[in-house]
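User: Fold this; tokens only.

Assistant: Input:
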Amino acid sequence: MTKSCPPNPKAVPQPATWWDARLARRLVTPLLGTPVTPNHLTTLRLAIGLAGAYYLLFGQFWLCSLGALLIALSNFVDHTDGELARISGQSSKIGHFYDLACDTLVTVLLFLGIGFYVGVHHPALPVPAQWLDGIAGIAVALIFFLRMRIESMVGKSGTKQASMAGFETEDVLYLRRS
């Protein structure tokens, strides 16, 4: 039987307000007191996202559909690490940086995977799709860098997204089509 560490008394977990965060919190609550850490869940998110980006490269309907499903699942799993960190008191700057780095990598590879597929299967486009998606990937990396800078200057409140009826702006990611 493993001995569980008590939650950090300084960390007061706030209730999840968004639908996906609420579900993520319910799913990770049983992990309290286990050896699973938020960084384990971040690594799981990264692995799922990498697999999704990989399957987008093939261009076959079912593989692209699997890739899109894995990317959407990866975006959902991204909520689990933060929720576990909050309810267990295991939040850290390094963990937050690791989470943002994984978010950036998965999102950049998503765009590059789509660009590779479009470029190979639709070569008659006036501008190579790989260039456009490469630019989009660079823009995403820049956005994540700027987000980190804003957070370091004014705190997380400076990067708060708009929300309505329990949905955040980023939740549109669940609506992607393959």
